[in-house]
Design brief:
The chain is an alpha/beta fold. It has 8 helices and 7 strands. Helix 2 runs antiparallel to helix 4, helix 2 runs parallel beside helix 8 and helix 3 packs parallel to helix 8.
Amino acid sequence: MRGLGFCAALALGLLVRLHPAAAQADVALVLAVDVSGSVNDERFQLQRDGIAHALDSDALAAVVSAGAHQTIEIAVVEWAEEQRVVLPWTVIHNRQDLAGLAMSLRRAPRSWVHTMTDPAGGIAAADALFQSVPLTPGRKVIDVSGDGKQNIGEVPTRESRDAAVAHGVTVNGLPITSGSEPDVDAWYRANVVGGSDAFLVVANGFDAFAEAFRQKLTREIAGRVAAPSLASLR
């Protein structure tokens, strides 16, 4: 009997080594935020405060707690002509973790990434981050927000989006329809959004960004839910 028990233990050990019980997260999400020249200091602060407020909220904490693994992972990239990782991957389990992430974002300086607009580069930088994600996620999502179409870059945004989708990533969009490009939402639909269950939420100006972002972030963490009313955000 002892021999049988030893064999069973050995077989179990081999099984564990062959199929490790890897830590899991419900979603790994990269927030890819436009900081190009059209985003002046006032607009930048509205963006940054809106993102931080959405992260540090009871509603988002409740969505995280409702997930199968009660764990998510978030990173933040700012982009224009170049890209910079503002916050590396942070594993989130609870409201306290979300509050800490929001505080770190509020304290982070704005990236200096020149003036032109290259969402293709932002998507590519976000997609590359999934190679170093700490936990194996059930879903991989890039959240692209910005107020302009691509006006620089060697790779078209649509191609960068398609490459990310080919890696199993969903790319969602949050266009801000203000300034000189009020039709940027149509461009985002055609060039940015793609992948499984991808969607778009439109903010009519930077003043509407916080509420649009809150709805979008909640839906991204929760997964498949009814689409928010875009009419209320326009």
